[in-house]
Every structure is written in structure tokens, then in C-alpha cells.
Amino acid sequence: MSKTPSFDKDRDYIGFATLPEQVHRKSVKRGFEFTLMVVGESGLGKSTLINSLFLGDLYKNRQMPNVEERIEKTTKVEKKTMDIEERGVRLRLTVVDTPGFGDAINCEDSWRVCTQYIDEQFRQYFTDESGLNRRNIQDNRVHCCLYFVPPWGHSLRQMDLDLIRRLHRKVNIVLVIGKADCLNKQEVRKLKERILQDLEDNHIQLYQFPECDSDEDEDFKQQDRELKASIPFAVVGSNTILEVAGKKVRGRQYPWGVVNVEDPEHSDFIKLRTFLISTHMQDLKDTTQDVHYENFRAQCISQISQHALRERGKLKRDSISSTNGFDAAISETDRLLLQKDEEIRRMQDMLTQMQEKLKQTHLMEMKKNDSVIDV
């Protein structure tokens, strides 16, 4: 009699409650990928910050250019990959650096290298996705772009606006004020306000935080509000461990004291690391897939459709110019025309669906933005 309740319980149990565990095991076994682009002029602490974020040394073999090289310096793209494992979870981190950005005398075309690289990765992914072997597609798309703003300016410069304006519809942009220990709290607050005002005046949209679900706990909602209020992040990076009041901290030593990188009163470093790694890394990847890549894919399909229409017109002209004595050739041309018509209809249907999906996504984002209360 004592086994009857257990039997009834097992009988009512189907088993699909283990689906999250199955997905988790599969994801952990496969591992994760994340690509981060870092853009900003030299001397803003980009390399130090990346090493501080991921507790590694990606730039141990870096060589600093001399004065002669800086005069003719152009923007380049350098990729560095690092495999990280934490509690059995593997992450393949790719950091795309842009040495030379903003360092030349003429910086008008500094943005071009960045946009070309992002488009090339989208194009390569689109080609691989359209191929026959789709099982082992390598995702090199840029999931997030950290753009460093110098602390000694009064706001965004024209060079900053030119790049951000060309990138904000291609990649998730997160603004970072580098070497923020140059400023006091009041100066940091005013600089953030001016930067946000510049973005609004130029109709530039940075990465939009997703809204918290209603069932989230209050601590998570408070953390989300603090992250949103901290943009742009004013950070200080350091790879040096110092001892302060008997405690070891990561910080920078000055004659007047120590800047603790991980102290929220000194820097937004912890908030940036929480946002980038702990809470929003997957959403950055989802936004890249569902918004930026789908927009690029819709443009590619539109171009393919236009090319197919031109080919169709060319075939029609060729068929009209043919004489009545070549019935076989005409019939072959008609067959090709029918195939092209079917292909064009199929592509146009796909394009319509893509545009409708992007339109719905944009409307949802507009509704979310209208419902956000400024902190």
C-alpha cells in the first residue's frame, strides 16, 4: 500500500520537464562563442580593460609604434582569440582590435575599416548559411562593439559621431569612457549627459536593454535599472594587484591614493563586466542574429531578386530577337524563364516575410522605448 502513491506519481510524470537540462548539457558540450570589437584611439586603456575583464593577457606581444610610424598610420584590424573555461563552461572569445583608429592626422576614413569588417563577417555567414554544409558554420559575426570615448573631451567628437552613425544599425554599440579616473564624479556625470544628448540630437541608437520580465526578483530589476542608468560606462582598468587596508584589490596607485577598479564609487568596471558577461552576453548574440543580421540578409535577398529580374529581362530580349526558325532554342529559353519566375516569386515571398518580421521587431522596440521611464 505504501508504494501506490509513488506509482501514481510516476504514472503522471511525462518527462519533458528535463528539456532545459538537455539543452544545457548540449550547450555546455558544444561551448560558446563571442566576438567583441574594440574601437578607440590609442592611450585610452583598451588593452588593459580587456585584460581586466577576462583576466587574461591578450596583448603580451604587442609592440608600440614609434613617432615616424604614427605619422603615416592607418587603421588595421587585428583578431585575437582566447579559450576560457569557468566551472566547466567553455567560451571561445575573439577580440577584434582596430589599432591606428583616430591616430592619423587625417581621420576622415577611420570608420571605413570597421564597417567593412562587420559587413564581411555578415557576408561570410550568409554564404555559409546558404551552402550545402550548414552543420559546422563558424560564427565570426561581431556581437558587440565597445567604443571608447576620451575623458578629456567635452562630448562626442565629429569622428566619434561619424563612426557610430555608420555602425549603430550593423552592430550592438556600447559606449565606454576610458581612463575615467581623470575626472571627478561631477565631471563624469556632466560628460555622460552631454554624450547622451549628442546621441539623441543625431538620432543614434545604442544597444537597447531588454525589459525585465514581471516574474524577475526585485534585486535583478534593481541591478538592471542601475546598469541602464550607468550608460555610457565610465571605467578604469588595471592589471595590478595592490594591498589596501589588508585587502588585495585590483587598482591603480597614485600619490594621493589608490583607485580601486572594482569599487563602484571609483569606476563602472564591475557594472560593465556584469552587463557584458554575466547578464546580457546571450542577448547581445540574439540581437545580432535577430535584428542586425536579418537586416543584412534581407538586403542580400533583395539584391539577388533584382539581379534575377535583370537576368529575366535579358532572357526575354534574347528570346524576342531570336527567329522563328529556332523553335528548340525558344522552348529552352521559355523553360529558363519559367524557372527564373519561380525563383523570383520564392525570393520575393522570403523578402516580404523578412521585412514584416523586421517591422514587427522595430514596432516592439518603439513600444518598449516609449514605456521606459528615465532614471
Helical run tally: 11
Major sheet: 6 strands, mixed
Write the CATH architecture name: 3-Layer(aba) Sandwich
Give the overall silhouette. Answer: globular
Oligomeric status: single chain
CATH class: Alpha Beta
Spell the H/E element sequence.
HHEHHEEHEHEHHEEEEHHH
Share of helix, binned: 40-55%
Query: Which regions have little confidence, pLDDT < 50, spanning 5+ residues?
Result: none
What is the mean pLDDT?
79
Please state the CA-atom Rg, rounded to the nearest Å.
Answer: 26 Å
User: N- to C-terminal separation?
Assistant: 61 Å
Strand content: 5-15%
User: Looking at CATH, which topology would you report?
Assistant: Rossmann fold
Q: How many structurally independent domains?
A: 1
Identify the CATH homologous superfamily: P-loop containing nucleotide triphosphate hydrolases
Total strand count, please?
Answer: 9
Organism: Drosophila kikkawai (Fruit fly)
GO molecular function, one term: GTP binding
Family: Belongs to the TRAFAC class TrmE-Era-EngA-EngB-Septin-like GTPase superfamily. Septin GTPase family.
Main location: cytoplasm
Textual characterization of the structure:
The protein has 375 residues and is of the alpha/beta class. It has one domain: P-loop containing nucleotide triphosphate hydrolases (Rossmann fold, 3-Layer(aba) Sandwich). It is built from 11 helices and 9 strands. The chain has helices at 4-11, 19-30, 46-54, 67-71, 110-130, 158-167, 185-201, 218-229, 269-279, 281-321, 327-371, and strands at 32-39, 78-86, 89-97, 144-149, 173-177, 233-234, 241-244, 247-254, 257-260. The strands form 2 sheets. A 6-stranded mixed β-sheet has the order 2-3-1-4-5-6, sandwiched between helices. Helix 5 runs parallel beside helix 6 and helix 9 (269-279) crosses helix 10 (281-321). The radius of gyration is 26 Å and the shape is globular.
